[in-house]
């Protein structure tokens, strides 16, 4: 399953659609501008909230939290420093951990579980400049969760770059 994401240019408060490979609007990332912390909602095409994403207020390292139906689903934080690649750890509430690594700012990274590829995020196969793709590799993967993870790590990496 491949999804196309038009890169946000202005940040929090911007809404943008995620389309499938046929150009159908599938998910809406709804940025909430007037909040104390960075907040997004991932909605389906009918406007139903599938996932809430927010930045954890009091944490030693920048952390994003993903919730579904008001219940925590995952926590994302930077794993380790590297000059060439970014590494993030996604801790799901069931104890499962996903690894995200690659060149986040270039939109070239992977989401893996125990070294098995779940999703590949890339601009390589696209001709539109401000667009990147999210290619969900596993049939049984949760597309909404993996897209939410991609949105979170990109947001965290962009915040780090702004602070530097």
Automatic annotation (TrEMBL):
SUPFAM superfamilies for the chain: Tubby C-terminal domain-like
Pfam families hit by this protein: LOR (PF04525)
Family designation: Belongs to the LOR family.
Name listed for the protein in its UniProt record: LURP-one-related/scramblase family protein
Source organism per UniProt: Streptomyces glomeratus
Taxonomic lineage from the root: Bacteria, Bacillati, Actinomycetota, Actinomycetes, Kitasatosporales
